[in-house]
Amino acid sequence: MSLLRYSAWRVTQALPVLVGIIAITFFLANQIPGDPVEIMLGPTPAQEQVEAIQAKYGLDRPAHERFITYLTGVATGDLGTSIYYDRPVLEMIILRLPVTLVLMLSAFAFAIITAIPLGVISAKRRNEPADHVSRIVSLIGVSTPSFWIGLVLIIVFAFHLGWFPARGLVLPWADPADVRGAATRFEVLRQAAHHLFLPMIALGTLQMAQITRIERSSMVDSLQGEYVKLARAYGVPESTIVRKHAFQVAQLPVITIVGLGLSTALGGAVLTETVFEIQGMGRLIITAINNQDYELIMGTTFMFGVAYVVGVIITDIAYAYLDPRVTYGDE
Amino acid sequence: MTEPLLSVENLKTQFFTEDGTVRAVDGISFDVHEGEIVGLVGESGAGKSVATSSILRLVESPGEVVDGEITFKGETLFGLEEGPDGEPQPSEEMLSEEEMRDDIRGNEIAIIFQDPMESLNPVFTVGGQLREFIELNRDLSTKEAEQEAIDMLREVGIPDPENRYDEYPHQFSGGMRQRVLIAMALACQPDLIIADEPTTALDVTVEGQILELVEELQEKYGTAFIWVTHDMSVVAEICDRVNVMYLGEIIEQADVDDLFYDTKHPYTQALLDSMPRPDETVEELNPIKGVMPEAINPPSGCRFHSRCPEAREVCTRVHPEPRTVAEGAVADADAPTEAAVADAATDDGERPHTVACVKYDAFDVGYDSSEPLETEATGGFSAGLTDTGGEADD
After folding, report:
1. Where in chain A is the domain with CATH 1.10.3720.10?
2. pTM
3. CA separation for the pair A279, A276 (Å, rounded)
4. What is the rounded CA–CA span in Å between residue B48 and residue B163?
5. Is B123 in contact with A322 (Cβ distance < 8 A)?
6. How far is residue A167's CA from residue A150's CA, in Å, rounded to a whole number?
7. For residue A248, which residues of chain B lie inside 8 Å, CB to CB?
8. Is B74 exposed, middle or buried (0-12, 13-18, 19+ CB in 10 A)?
9. Which one of A86, A149, B32, B68 counts the least CB within 10 Å of its CB?
10. Contact residues for A91 (Cβ-Cβ < 8 A; gap 6+)
């Protein structure tokens, strides 16, 4: 099976998972005590008003019927209408998703760019001072919650030093006319980077620490491999051994961690967005839950599910691509 | 007789561990001449592999080559001289790490490791790995190196080498991988190949095929080999000259026929007795009693005395250096080994049979008048895996 067919097959396999996610979220959301209509209309609404709104959002029909309607909707790209915002859920997601994606991608870029050299140096200089420093940094990184890091960063770099803004985010592709104090595209980009810096570190630190740890232990293993000894015995320069022979084998476990990290980072994004007051998916899901906005809860959770599944699929495909021993499941 | 290709003199490699200094290789000397296969035999832990990595200066920390001299084709791979502070320091002639890497490893001395399953990198194609090492060690373009790799794969008996070139190690069987590693070593056109137990991980039929292949290729290319093994039958099959190691020392050194038919050292004898032979019928094999003591705290005197069936009291006191003992050879009791070797190796090309055992007259330390010693081998201790460490301290 070719890599392309393997990828297609993995995507197909993911469909039942997504249906499962929808089903569980749907019934869980319906079990939350309280009523969105009550939240909308206050504690003592008129009966006609309640019925009108229930009819509008289809809440007067039994759950299983609504579930079927919802599923068909999802299949045709309709995620329903948000009760709270009174706008299509999909529209809300399209508005917010890029914000979260920018935050996550920059956090991962930060994590990978710092973690891989750190882990490699750590492994190469095992039990030397550089290794100890990198291990302590990564230990602190994995054991500190991202919201706390975010708060500390705000207090130090935004409040006391005033180097970075404490809240909000500017999207790099925003129209310069919409961004305060930015006249050109370059200005927008500068502001985007400026705003992104602290949340990126808050969200990326945990990933960075985890990747460093895995990178280190994996490199330590592969540097002791027989193939590394063989390469040395054939006069391969040490730098080539580290960069090529040991490195490539060592990346396999790292890829797994990065792939799984995508899902934990989503959770982290919810907290980070709250701390930095960023209007992304994380804030959207919190608003949805607070207002018992069924459609929005399901829509956002579904998107998180999709992101998780995509993360896993990317991991699998990367693995199959990098490790010749992984067969494409045709045995 | 011509200059040896490789000459190892009094090589000492030690590992500095928390429990103390492990004298893994403790003053061994041997030569390898052009085109011959020299065996390095001994039990696990005798220091065979450490000796070979010392030759390439690839001993990993906490290990270190601490003494001795290794010369290869006139180049000093390792050598010490007295520094200004009286401490030994690397001699001026000793090759730098860069010279070792660029000029010696791979292109002059290649190595074949024990475990073919682990020696190839799982994420690169077999051909790619071969090509990389060929390119690195020979002045060939990528295209030429690729062709050479394919030719070499064919040479070592891998069918359909053009297609196998692009396959990954996991698609090869153990025997095939070992063939790849042999191809790798030969393709770099070295003068010496160190084969570190290359057939130990293979099953016997495959081992036979590999030995046959090596003999055939050795004849064709004239490459010298150091063949590290614990298997006396492999030694008998392919070696020209044999060094028997015990606890970091070479205790017997002889041409292969002399070693088998005129065995001198009790340890060598014991090794041979513990192996079934097609030319001798025995009721029961006679394994060597006990286990080899730790090299961290070797027994006093002769290191083998704790397991030796012929041990006497003098063996616990006198540490024998190898001396020439074979009949006809110059056996000057007082002359150091090197001199004896030089004398004996002059005209006819016959090399001496040296042994490190005080029971021979060449040593003259009163073995005959000494009291026999009770050891595990003589029945004084219960046979089996008893700890010989305590006894070694006596």
Report:
1. 96-290
2. 0.78
3. 9
4. 37
5. yes
6. 11
7. 121, 123-124
8. exposed
9. A86
10. none
Contacts of B101 in chain A (CB under 8 A): 235, 237
Of A226, A235, A324, the CB nearest to B106: A235
Q: Which amino acid is at B115?
A: D
Average pLDDT by stretches of 10, chain A with 331 residues? 79 87 83 70 74 74 81 82 82 87 89 92 89 90 87 86 80 72 76 85 89 92 90 90 89 86 81 85 86 82 85 83 72 41
pLDDT band at B326 (very low <50, low <70, confident <90, very high): low
What is A96-290's CATH number?
Answer: 1.10.3720.10
Beta bridge pairs of residue B333: none
Q: Which residues of A touch B124 (CB under 8 A)?
A: 248
Q: For residue B104, which residues of chain A lie inside 8 Å, CB to CB?
A: 235
* Residue tagged 């997504």 (tokens): A18
B135 inside 8 A of chain A by CB:
no
Whether residue B62 is preceded by a cis peptide bond, meaning omega within 30 degrees of 0, is: yes
Return the amino acid letter for B146: E
What pLDDT band is residue B89 in, cutting at 50, 70 and 90? Answer: confident
Partner A contacted by B221 (CB < 8 A): no
B133 Cα to chain A: minimum distance (Å): 7
- Measured CA to CA, the distance from residue A129 to residue B268 in angstroms comes to 48
Neighbours of B151 (CB within 10 A): 12
DSSP character for A243?
A: I
| Contact B96/A at CB under 8 A | no
CB contact under 8 A, A226 and B132: no
Bridge partners for B196 per DSSP: B228
For B134, the closest chain A residue by CA position comes to: A234
Contact at CB, A226 and B124, closer than 8 angstroms: no
Of B56, B120, B188, the CB nearest to A227: B120
CA distance B393 to B374: 15
Which residues from A are below 8 Å from B181, CB to CB?
A: 230
Q: In chain B, pLDDT over 90 holds for what percent of residues? A: 29
Alpha carbons B374 and B380: distance in angstroms, whole number: 5
CA B332 to the chain's CA centroid:
27
Residue B63: beta bridge partners? B15
Which of A237, A245, A248 lies closest to B101 in CB terms? Answer: A237
Question: Which value does ipTM take for this structure?
Answer: 0.81
| Number of neighbours of residue A157 by Cβ within 10 angstroms | 17
Cα gap B390→B293, rounded to integer Å? 10
Between helix A247-275 and helix A146-153 the angle, nearest 10°, is 70
CB-based contact A232 B113, cutoff 8 Å: no
Residues 6+ apart with CB under 8 A from A107: A199, A200, A201, A203, A204, A207, A265, A268
